[in-house]
């Protein structure tokens, strides 16, 4: 038994997250995303939406403060200036749980797939809202990260 671990994070996802290092990227993917055909390790969270998954992951995962952008979303096809409603929910979770200003950068669909190919982990969720995809760049732990 473990304490202080978000209840949505099972042993496979905990191991995968713990294996990440500074600068590694994790993709939180919606149900339509081609998670298994891109190459990186995939951990499934069927039945969990992408915002819940992001909240669970961000409870433990620091974002990278050494880069210009540490969070990315897929841009709407043929409407790159449109911001899907789920983006505001991702932004809220990031703001609440990351302790910093991390704007979410839009990336064209195929460029998003290419970036996802280079990620270390894809978390495949049951998210059914369109454009429910997010890439997060892992930061560093600062100071004593073990609760007393």
Commentary on this structure:
The protein has 148 residues and is α/β, with parallel strands linked by helices. It has one domain (11-134): RbsD-like domain (RbsD-like fold, 3-Layer(aba) Sandwich), CATH 3.40.1650.10. It is 27% helix and 18% strand. The chain has four helices and six strands, in the order αββαβαβαββ. A six-stranded mixed sheet has the order 2-5-1-6-3-4. Helix 3 (85-98) links the parallel strand 3 and strand 4 (104-107). Helix 2 runs parallel beside helix 3 (85-98). The longest helix has 14 residues, at 85-98. It is globular and about 45 Å long. The chain starts with 10 loop residues before the first helix and ends in an 11-residue tail after the last strand. The mean pLDDT is 93. InterPro entries: RbsD-like_sf, RbsD/FucU_mutarotase, RbsD_FucU. Keywords: Isomerase. It comes from Aureimonas jatrophae. It catalyses: alpha-L-fucose = beta-L-fucose; beta-D-ribopyranose = beta-D-ribofuranose.
Compact description:
The chain is α/β, with parallel strands linked by helices and 148 residues long. It has helices spanning 11-18, 50-58, 85-98, 109-117, and strands at 25-29, 41-45, 71-74, 104-107, 121-125, 134-137. It is built from 4 helices and 6 strands; from the N terminus they run αββαβαβαββ.
């Amino acid at each position: 038994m473990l304490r202080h671990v978000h209840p949505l994070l099972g042993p496979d996802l905990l191991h995968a997250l713990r294996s990440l290092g500074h600068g590694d990227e994790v993709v939180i993917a919606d149900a339509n995303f081609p998670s298994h055909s891109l190459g990186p390790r995939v951990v499934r969270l069927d039945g969990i939406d992408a915002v819940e998954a992001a909240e669970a992951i961000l409870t433990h995962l620091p974002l990278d403060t050494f880069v210009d952008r540490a969070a990315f979303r897929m841009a709407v096809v043929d409407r790159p200036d449109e911001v899907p409603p789920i983006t505001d929910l991702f932004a809220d979770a990031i703001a609440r749980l990351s302790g910093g200003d991390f704007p979410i950068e839009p990336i064209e669909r195929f460029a998003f797939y290419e970036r996802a190919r280079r990620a270390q982990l894809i978390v495949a969720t049951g998210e059914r809202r369109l454009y429910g995809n997010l890439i997060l760049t892992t930061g560093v732990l600062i100071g004593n990260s073990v609760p007393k």
